[in-house]
Amino acid sequence: MRNQLVYQTKFRNGNNLLVQVGDDIQEMLSTSSQSRLMGWDEALGTYAALDYTRLSSTMFGTVTGVGILTDPPFSVYKNLSRFLSYFALGSYTIAGKYNIDASYRQDHSSLFGRNLSTQSEPTWSIGGKWHIAREKFMEQVKPINSLDLRATYGVTGNSPFSGSASLDDVVSPQNSSTSGNLIAGNAFTLSTIRNGNLAWELTRTINIGLDFEVLHNRIGASIDYYYKNTTDLIGSLLLNPFSGYPSTVGNIGKLVNHGVEVSLRSNNITKEHFRWTTMITMGYNKNKLASYLIPGGYSAAGLARGINAREGYSIKPVFAYHYAGLDNLGDPQIYKADNTITKVVDAAVAGDMIYKGSLLPIVTGGISNSFGYKAFTLDVNIIYNLGGVMFQDVNTKFNGNTNGAGLAGQNIATYFLDRWKQPGDEAFTQIPSYVTKSVDARRRNIDYYTYADINVVSSSYAKIREATLSYDLPVQYLKRLRMNRARIFIQGGNFMIWKANKVGIDPEVPRSPTAVKPKPNYSLGVNFSF
Fold this sequence. Notes:
The protein has a 16-stranded antiparallel sheet that branches. Strands 18-19-20 form a 3-stranded antiparallel sheet, with no helix packed on it. The chain has a two-stranded antiparallel sheet with strand order 3-4. With about 525 residues, it is mainly β. The protein is built from 6 helices and 29 strands. A hairpin with a 3-residue loop joins β15 (about 255-270) and β16.
């Protein structure tokens, strides 16, 4: 339910005032239930009548020793969340040249715990706009049709997901029929611990922008610089094992983002039968995890797999082992921070890892062109990502039995043929040997190769996301057919134009030698409106 009061007035000197105040009350209840039926006959729509009480009791002497029904026949789930918000908006215009805007909002949420100060964190913003082109000193600058300077500062909040914080400890019943380790029968288990100190995730943003249009509005652009400081990041927080609960949702750190966004629009050609327009966008972003609450510290394996974020680096850092090649058994080796070489399984620590860049691209954007000739239109949309890195596809199976590998989702890539096979091959290949005995597999750490720096490649690319050629039926035919519009089109997409890596990887595909490589797609369609 939303209540809103709006007041607007225009003063004699040409100034305008607009004020809005109100409240917003939300309640959302979601419920779901699930029934599990045994012996379901799809044709007859019937199922078996079972004694669930007897089946849920422990039965000894079965094939596995103990038999028990682990599937509950019926379950119910309910989720209730409430928001109460108060807001105010104000805008004041001076002489049609200067705008001052402000907003204020305060939210009370049931998604937080007992601490009232965290439940009602206010968010607000203030900004101004200067219409420079309306000033007298700009009257003689004919090519410029509009020129505006903007600046804003604001605070926004992000609440946790439902159930991540609670007023008190929450217990849930656990039926012995669904767990074989409840010796004493039915019990209660701790499902959610009290979390009264969880606070809003707050982002403070400074934005400065410039908008302009020139040459009779044929060319327009917007340029923005922003700086975002996010505090009290919401994430998983490990707890002391003696607390009886492994983890909870908490405020774990601070993230800083800054960058530039540019948007350029142009009407290149406007003729009677031919037209051409272009839209170019570009976004540059650098982010850094300024602080991070780490109860246990970093691990080399966690950094290599991207599990651990690391203070002082990008929010999605890529760390790799410094590869030292293979030994005379075909086992991978790495350089430690002190330049010593090792292949010992647990020898690497976080300090031995090398930072290779960010999984997130630094520059993103797109280029869209629209060409029109009479009733034909060609739209081409190109996207690009620059500055990121990724691990290339590598084979991950280097021990055990290869029979049935494909059935287990472990198709072996062709570059497996280039592996180390005999002493001396370490001078020609970087791919480890393949061993069949488990005792041989335990002598080495294959991660030293699969997450090595030699397997980090650029993820920069540009591709045609979509290209559409369409034809609009002329008006005289539409009248005969009693239609408002009829359009025939052919569309294609996912055409790679350029990629920086030399190994043929599409950076949009997750790292996996078994992943299906995307191919260009095509479609043909017709749109009618009456």
